[in-house]
Amino acid sequence: xxxxxxxxxxxxxxxxxxxxxxxxxxxxxxxxxxxxxxxxxxxxxxxxxxxxxxxxxxxxxxxxxxxxxxxxxxxxxxxxxxxxxxxxxxxxxxxxxxxxxxxxxxxxxxxxxxxxxxxxxxxxxxxxxxxxxxxxxxxxxxxxxxxxxxxxxxxxxxxxxxxxxxxxxxxxxxxxxxxxxxxxxxxxxxxxxxxxxxxxxxxxxxxxxxxxxxxxxxxxxxxxxxxxxxxxxxxxxxxxxxxxxxxxxxxxxxxxxxxxxxxxxxxxxxxxxxxxxxxxxxxxxxxxxxxxxxxxxxxxxxxxxxxxxxxxxxxxxxxxxxxxxxxxxxxxxxxxxxxxxxxxxxxxxxxxxxxxxxxxxxxxxxxxxxxxxxxxxxxxxxxxx
Length: 385
Fold this sequence. Notes:
Layout (H helix, E strand, L loop, with lengths): L8 H7 L40 H13 L4 E5 L2 H9 L7 E5 L4 H11 L5 E5 L15 E7 L11 H10 L3 E5 L4 H4 L9 E5 L13 E5 L2 H14 L5 H11 L2 H20 L4 E5 L9 H7 L6 E6 L4 H8 L6 E2 L9 E3 L11 H6 L6 E5 L5 H12 L1
Parallel strand pairs: 2-3, 2-4, 4-5, 5-6, 10-11
Antiparallel strand pairs: 1-7, 6-7, 8-9, 9-12, 11-12
Helix pairs in contact: 1-2, 2-8, 3-4
């Protein structure tokens, strides 16, 4: 459907980038399971030559995701980390990146173990006050990388304030929008240059695909990223692209349910005697709650909790006692998941660095799904006994 930019979010999620197949009239975008495409003569083709560069199923998804982020261009990658990798490859040895001190463990690992050895310097700082960024800017600073809400302590970073600092200093701003999803937050509208998603999470929504995406407005940035995308080859296949196209059609419905369940569970846990602390940006006393309220449409289904007085053994016992929540990595699927960041998603971050920002051994991260709320509450109650 053309002209979707003026339509509502749900309509865009269902229709953007997708037209009935011209050869058959199929309403759903076909899975173009082909590695190569016919050419009438050398270099003369119908827009597709080799599937690493472009594939019709993937292109439909890229257009759809771009529409949801109010972006002009989209690129899908074989994983979220493939997308992060492409952004850092915009830089060169000697360049510097400023990022947060509460960061997904895989991103931290890539920054410190892969790109640091190629001469890129990373500054992991407290971004609760965006003005802290100015203390680290120099002539080599080329990128600010932001997560908000952060993984796993739900820190809120002021995207618009970061964007102003970035623009004033001719620095790129990239925002990992995975936890919020485009339904709750649109960083490009707040001044960001690049939005990254682990599509595996809320966009796919069904825990059956691993994928990443980058969304941008600037044609120069897009062309640079598209060159890296094709040259380095971290591109997803058409089957996965089809699955995400299917999954994203219900994003607006799922996110409403995630938010409703998340709010109820956050309040339940906040009053539970076994819980020392609850990280959820919807609480008025959550750090930067006012910023979250301003830049997000709701507060999402991600919650982290600190168990009161629990050692590692007790934390493991509780984490393994759930019957509806599943103990597993990842997040954003229709099913509720529970995760122990210190030994799972954030194990690659040194213990002392983790604990500085609150990722302690008795912290658990919940991805609240869309099951019946009463069943989730009962499961939490029995596991915490």
